[in-house]
Write a structure and sequence with these properties.
Length: 315
């Protein structure tokens, strides 16, 4: 058994932590790998921490567990000494989830120069990394996977008590007037503009006929849109680059330009359309999400993990 050691600084639940946890579980499923994780001393331990029920996998401060592979994401690089970042004695697998990595003013950018086997959550993100010119090591795309088994059961249309949920945690100034205008038009609207427990968020998405998503202008991928598609909810989501492969306007969802008027117009179009008109788009969205099941992500990642020594030697 080869030990893959993860690092995390957990302060509150975010989508990036969830995806790292998915990869942790991928490693645990491997018959030839063992997953362990070391947390920063000030990490928060509550029910929102995905590892709260797996304390036996946590490497404590005095634990001398040696790693055969290091798995890093985001700012995890800072858990390594500068010399280890530049010349690690063991392979490093680096999960890249954000387009911020290619912004030279962002702290994440400096890590691209360190050797690693990089896994991007979207093809758009891999293209951006390849165009950056400072990346050392091979780059792969493993399209972001949806944990379909953890989603609530999709409700029939007549059993949905929310007309539209507006997910505006990442853009409150835009989300609030959109929700206000849809309410003024007589629709039952739930505005989510602050972090809520994940189960509560998924339940709201399952109860809604339409979901308006407001990701950041630049995202490496955008998982909530895929989750809404899996729940048979009509998605309205502006472009954020990393969602282009699955948010296809008029096919899987509606992709308005990023403006209040355009997003309200798209939401109204979805809310006033008949079941027959929305049927093909809902079916395409559902098919898109089903094709990105977590099992698909797992299989593609484990193929890479099983080649880690070969890839590291050829970096």
């Amino acid at each position: 058994m080869r030990t893959v050691l993860f690092h995390r600084n957990f302060q509150r639940f975010q989508g990036g932590h969830l995806k790292v946890f998915h990869y942790f579980e991928h490693v645990r499923s491997s018959p030839s790998h063992d997953a362990r994780i070391r947390f920063s001393p000030d990490s928060v331990w509550d029910v929102s921490n995905p590892w709260s029920g797996l304390r036996e996998t946590v490497v404590g401060p005095g634990d001398t567990t040696s790693a055969d592979v290091l798995f890093l994401a985001g700012m995890d690089w800072r858990s390594l000494a500068p010399q280890q970042r530049a010349s690690s004695p063991v392979p490093i697998v680096n999960l890249v989830q954000a387009l911020r990595h290619v912004q030279d003013t962002n702290p994440l950018h400096e890590f691209l120069a360190h050797p690693a086997i990089r896994i991007c959550v979207s093809a758009e993100l891999q293209e951006a990394l390849e165009g950056d010119g400072s990346v050392r090591g091979p780059i792969f795309t493993v399209p972001i996977g949806v944990d379909l088994d953890r989603l609530p059961v999709a409700r029939p249309p007549d059993d949905r008590d929310i007309d539209c949920v507006v997910l505006a945690i990442k853009d409150r100034p835009l989300g609030r007037p959109i929700a206000r205008r849809l309410r003024a038009a007589g629709y039952r609207v739930m505005l989510v503009d602050r972090p809520v427990p994940r189960d509560e968020l998924l339940d709201a998405m399952a109860r809604a006929r339409v979901s308006v998503h407001l990701p950041r202008a630049l995202e490496g991928a955008y998982l909530p849109a895929l989750e809404s598609m899996a729940l048979d909810t009509l998605v309205v989501c502006p472009d954020c680059v990393g969602n282009r492969s699955f948010c296809r306007d008029g096919e899987t969802c509606l992709v308005p330009v990023r403006s209040e008027d355009a997003i309200v117009e798209s939401a109204m179009t979805a809310l006033t359309a008949s079941a027959q008109e929305l049927g093909p788009m809902l079916a395409s969205g559902r098919q898109e999400s089903m094709g990105r099941a977590l099992a698909v992500e797992r299989a593609r990642f484990l193929e890479i993990l099983n080649r880690v020594d070969e890839l590291w030697a050829a970096r």
